[in-house]
User: Fold LRP1B protein from Syrrhaptes paradoxus.
Amino acid sequence: KLFFTDYGNAAKVERCDMDGMNRTWIVDSKIEQPMALALDLINKYVYWVDIYLDSVEVVDYQGRKRHTVIKGRQIRHLRGLAVFENYLYTTNSDNLSILRINRYNGTDVQSLARLDNAKEIRVYQKRTQTAVRSHACEVDPSGMPGGCSHICLLSSNYKARTCRCRTGFILGSDGRSCK
Assistant:
């Protein structure tokens, strides 16, 4: 799944399949300007920062179990967001710091470091990566991902895929070749 935020005409947090199908709103009320978004892949939770409401909130992948992690002036100007173990890590564009917030109760907010112009943050650690099983976009014997000549996108599950073409090309009638 692909998770993303939008605050155009109606602010929301959404999800869809990697090929863009099955687009679903998971949060569409009491939300103003969702910016940064982070996933807890193990427990299947979506965290986001609302820069207008000065809040960090969370829901499960279906949009249930919503609650506010932290709200208020101490978290104004947050940008990036990452989840690791018991904490959320975020960048603050006002004082150029990296913050650590207890994601279960919003307490224990600590400034860890100062970085000029930090707008995003990522945690790279083996435990944050899910095990990869065989999937529909694996490279075939002729070296094409999922048998697609250009781009292979996972569909509704890891066994299904959709082929797409780079800009300027059209997908052929076989659903795999680009011309």
In short: Residues 131-178 form a domain with the Laminin fold (CATH 2.10.25.10). The first strand starts at residue 2 and ends at 6. The chain has a mean pLDDT of 87. The chain has two domains: 2-128, 131-178.
